[in-house]
């Protein structure tokens, strides 16, 4: 056999080494504990920041009340209550006199009583994506985008799931959904905000949490003012072959085009996050639903086509027995408005009470979109604070 030229031998060894390393990592990830670390990335956070000092993130002193609540299975969940700045301005001197830091009893704070006592106050419950905390990256800017404005009465409740930030425990799909349900129960039972003044908003992994939470409430006959899903996905096994870490590392894309191999590898996923099925179920169970599905075309982490599929699943669930793809496409085309630059809005109005809206925007990437107008506008529409005309919803 002719000896390989040294340069080819080197390249060959490098490829062999990288391939073996890749396979080794995949095998390691069949371990549920490692896999959950890889999916939730809950230990990656800016540990040098003190989340009990929200001024670090540009909020007014005591505009945010950090506090803990408990889940039925005994975890302590760390949360932020963010009050709208205009409301803060009206009560500034009283709020400034309150103790700062993580509240021993949030129900004794002025911010809390302003949320509970005002019959017009509204609440967005925010479920963030994987990695980091309530205070990470675009998240803090997004709270301002959603609630600021001199006349806003929109409060935000943001939580860190178990295992994230200062919360106790270790994340699993079931556990994280339990945390989300506990947050909603806190809002309805402790803060006494009725569900028709609550919007549930999730981004990325948080859309999975949202789908899981709203389905559980739909089963009890409880509907919300609105559900907003930003940069969502249909299920973890569907997503992973398409997902790029940080927008550039497509970890599982080698399996994208081999159906059998893909199914085999994906069968090792422990937390499958079946959002499309859960949303469809929620649509069927709800008496009233306003579902907003928003995704940016330039999202390099999760392709926007995932939101297309979420919309199809939710719309399909408004029909008896479902409709075939050709009919769906025809009906969707009829209710789609071109917004220019490749952006569009499709509004599926099954009835006055069941409206599903897909908005594909041109800009916003994967996370920054949270701070962009379409997301805040969706919340305003869900709360009925819009004109209710032009484009239906
Ligand atoms: C909130 O919970 C965390 C985690 O258990 C704990 O370290 C912290 O002291 C709690 N804060 C208050 C004010 O209870
Ligand atoms: C709707 O659901 C039916 C029954 O599950 C399925 O056969 C059909 O392909 C679905 N249509 C769309 C557009 O997803």
From TrEMBL:
SUPFAM superfamilies the UniProt entry points to: alpha/beta-Hydrolases
Keywords noted in UniProt: Hydrolase, Membrane, Transmembrane, Transmembrane helix
Record has Ribonucleoprotein as a keyword: no
Transmembrane regions: 12-34
Gene Ontology MF annotations: hydrolase activity
InterPro entries reported for this sequence: AB_hydrolase_1, AB_hydrolase_fold
Domain AB hydrolase-1: 123-235
Pfam families: Abhydrolase_1
Range of residues in the leader sequence: none
Name of this chain's protein: Alpha/beta-hydrolase
